[in-house]
Design goal:
Layout (H helix, E strand, L loop, with lengths): L11 H4 L11 H7 L2 E2 L4 E4 L2 E3 L2 H7 L4 E2 L8 H9 L2 E2 L4 E4 L2 E3 L2 H7 L2 E2 L8 H6 L4 E3 L4 E4 L2 E3 L2 H21 L3 H9 L2 E2 L4 E4 L2 E2 L6
Antiparallel strand pairs: 1-2, 2-3, 4-7, 5-6, 6-7, 8-11, 9-10, 10-11, 12-13, 13-14
Helix pairs in contact: 3-8, 5-7, 7-8
The chain binds zinc ion (ZN) (4 copies).
Length: 203
């Protein structure tokens, strides 16, 4: 006799705990871990709200595990050993993790804070606009705290680019990505360098 597979479909609803298509809001946690809230359809990098999924994905604000043996670039190997940045590849390394841009590398050098945990008034103000607090010896870039002034200044510069990219994404998401990565938007034919559009003057 042939075996007949009976699908116990009547039991299936018992295992569906969460109704599909209705995720919970994870915004608060996402501000700390540069995550995406599926409910609000917004992502966060240094607590900057990013509504463009394309831009958020391109920012890729996480460390990645690396296969050290496959790394060909000598500067990358040096950077890996010193938690540094390879300017040739635009890759940064922290704790053996790879960061794909100067922005995400710089931010990962700081420490993301819960806003309510910041007690100092000056530091709280600095979360609105990057600034250095002399009494705490801490610089804030969004919700990310820095004790190293040089790294703070670098992160502030990258943060300005991020704000510009968020603004541009309302017009063209590809331009926003191009601005972050020093590249060209093929549809708008605009080229970006150091967070600005490169204007070519007619000869
Ligand atoms: Zn949310
Ligand atoms: Zn490299
Ligand atoms: Zn302070
Ligand atoms: Zn464009």
């Amino acid at each position: 006799m042939q075996q007949v597979l009976v699908v116990p479909f009547v039991l299936v609803p018992l295992f569906v705990v969460q109704p599909l298509g209705d995720p919970a809001c994870t915004c608060e946690a996402d501000k700390l871990k540069n995550g995406w809230c599926g409910k609000c359809k917004v992502g966060y990098v240094a607590a900057v709200a990013i509504k463009s999924g394309v831009l958020f994905e391109a920012l890729d604000a996480h460390g990645h595990r690396i296969d050290v043996n496959s790394m060909k670039c000598e500067l990358c190997r040096k950077a890996l050993a010193s938690d540094g940045f390879c300017t040739r590849c635009n890759w940064g390394f922290i704790d053996q993790q790879l960061y794909h841009s100067k922005l995400t590398y710089s931010l990962a050098k700081g420490k993301a804070k819960v806003f309510s945990s910041i007690k100092c008034a000056r530091c709280r103000k600095n979360t609105l606009k990057p600034g250095w607090c002399d009494s705490c010896n801490v610089g804030m870039v969004g919700n990310v705290a820095f004790e190293d002034k040089k790294m703070f200044e670098q992160a502030s510069r990258e943060h300005r680019k991020l704000l510009a990219a968020v603004e541009i994404a309302r017009r063209c998401e590809i331009c926003a990505v191009a601005l972050i990565t020093d590249a060209k938007c093929p549809s708008c034919k605009k080229t970006y360098k150091d967070g600005k559009e490169v204007i070519k003057l007619p000869p």
